[in-house]
Amino acid sequence: MSYTVGEVANLLGVAPSTLLYYESEGFLPEVERTDSGRRCYSESNVEACRVIECLKTSGLSIKEIHDFMAMVQLGDATLADRLELFEQRRAAVLADIEQLKNAWHASI
């Protein structure tokens, strides 16, 4: 099944320009086009967009997302590196949570 930019934007709750940005930044593997030049997003493109949105929500920077998506395209040989990236992000999120807890307790 293939999707238009608008359909994928609606599925993910993002602006169509966000998807075009992902493509221009090289986050997505090649997005196919119709004979008339309209983009046709595949299921794997949609899934990649979902991953990108999740990475953004977790607080990864654009550079980190770019690096992660490049590793995905390289395949399983990068699994350890991807895990390391997630472990680093998890540690940073846990540290942020602890800092917020401490600030909240100090304000009571």
Report what the structure shows.
The termini are far apart. The chain has a single domain, classed as Orthogonal Bundle (Multidrug-efflux Transporter Regulator, Chain: A, Domain 2). The chain is mainly alpha-helical and 108 residues long. The longest helix is centred in the C-terminal third of the chain and has 29 residues. The protein has a two-stranded antiparallel sheet with strand order 1-2. The model has no long low-confidence stretch (mean pLDDT 92). Strand 1 and strand 2 form a beta hairpin. It is 69% helix and 4% strand.
Rg value: 17 Å
- Percent range for β-strand residues: under 5%
**Number of helices, where a helix is a run of at least 4 consecutive DSSP H or I residues:** 5
Low-confidence stretches: none
What's the CATH topology name? Multidrug-efflux Transporter Regulator, Chain: A, Domain 2
C-alpha end-to-end distance: 54 Å
Tell me, briefly, the overall form.
elongated
Structural class: mainly alpha
Number of strands: 2
The biggest sheet amounts to:
2 strands, antiparallel
Strand order of the largest sheet: 1-2
Order of helices and strands: HHEEHHH
CATH class: Mainly Alpha
User: In the CATH classification, which architecture applies?
Assistant: Orthogonal Bundle
Number of domains: 1
